[in-house]
Amino acid sequence: MKIEVVTLFPRMIAVALEFGIVGRAIGRGLLSVGTEDPRAHATDAHRTVDDRPYGGGPGMVMKPEPLLAAIRAAHARLPAGSPRVYLSAQGRPFRQAQAQELAALPGVLLLAGRYEGVDERVIELGIDLELSVGDYVVSGGELPALTVIDALARLLPGALGDERSSLDDSFVQGLLEGPHYTRPEVFEGRSVPPVLLSGDHADIRRWRLEQSVARTAERRPDLLARARPTGAARRALDEFQTGASSDAGAGAASAAGREDRGD
Ligand code: 4HQ
């Protein structure tokens, strides 16, 4: 897969991609990431890429000419039909399903804006899809673009040590992941749940699914409402909802075992 990032801070992208799973995916040739700096397409002596907003108001807006030229230069290096994505707080929420769709493509262009954003005509003429990484404001699109790159890279075949591990991730079944434990068996007086030491793998699988469902119900009821779990996850959810309704709310918070401790 090939990704191009249009950014005023190309080193911010390059440096962040050196590490961990993404760094290894690039090292293994599963992913390559290029950058294009709109400043290289500015034509005046000062290499201007921003200007004051029409209508007044604070802050600056990215000028259309160098930005669209940079998008076109970067897009020309990608396979035909690669979507051009603008990271913005006004975008549609970036979710795991969107990550899976994008990761299946041979190319993606990401536009990381700065200042108050980009001239709207750049979006009309040069962008196919606007995505938001969350309902908060950051100072530039680079961290959102890196978030998208990371989420895609780990889905590429061969990027993870164990291919099954991305199937267990939060959101893949529309559920949050449950808790993880490693040695020691007792840590500061807190024991690992005995089922995990039992060696009964069917029991362990069942327990983990229950933990996932209970945690999702407590922390992200919105996810549970959208979740379309199948097979064992479906049965665990049905079981939880039957139990929770006969047991009027006592379930979720204490199953996650935190509200009781007041933290
Ligand atoms: N931005 N998800 C870039 C965001 C954002 C988000 C604000 C986009 C600043 C220049 N991007 N502009 N949330 O907060 O993607």
Write a structural description:
This protein is an alpha/beta fold and 263 residues long. It has two domains: 2-153, SPOUT methyltransferase, trefoil knot domain (Alpha/beta knot), CATH 3.40.1280.10; 170-263, tRNA(m1g37)methyltransferase, domain 2 (Trp Operon Repressor, Chain A), CATH 1.10.1270. It is 38% helix and 14% strand. It is built from ten helices and nine strands. The strands form three sheets. The chain has a five-stranded parallel sheet with strand order 2-1-6-5-7. The chain has a two-stranded antiparallel sheet with strand order 3-4. Helix 7 crosses helix 10 (250-256). The protein is elongated and about 70 Å long. The structure holds ligand 4HQ. Ligand 4HQ binds at residues 87-89, 113-114, 117, 132-134, 136-138, 140-141, 144.
Please write out the topology:
Elements: E1 2-6, H1 10-16, H2 20-27, E2 32-36, E3 50-51, E4 61-62, H3 64-75, E5 84-93, H4 96-103, E6 107-111, H5 120-126, E7 129-132, H6 142-153, E8 186-187, E9 190-191, H7 201-219, H8 221-226, H9 231-245, H10 250-256
Parallel strand pairs: 1-2, 1-6, 5-6, 5-7
Antiparallel strand pairs: 3-4, 8-9
Helix pairs in contact: 3-5, 4-6, 7-9, 7-10
This protein binds ligand 4HQ.
Keywords:
single chain; 263 residues; alpha/beta; Alpha/beta knot; Trp Operon Repressor, Chain A; two-stranded antiparallel sheet; 9 strands; 14% strand; elongated; binds ligand 4HQ
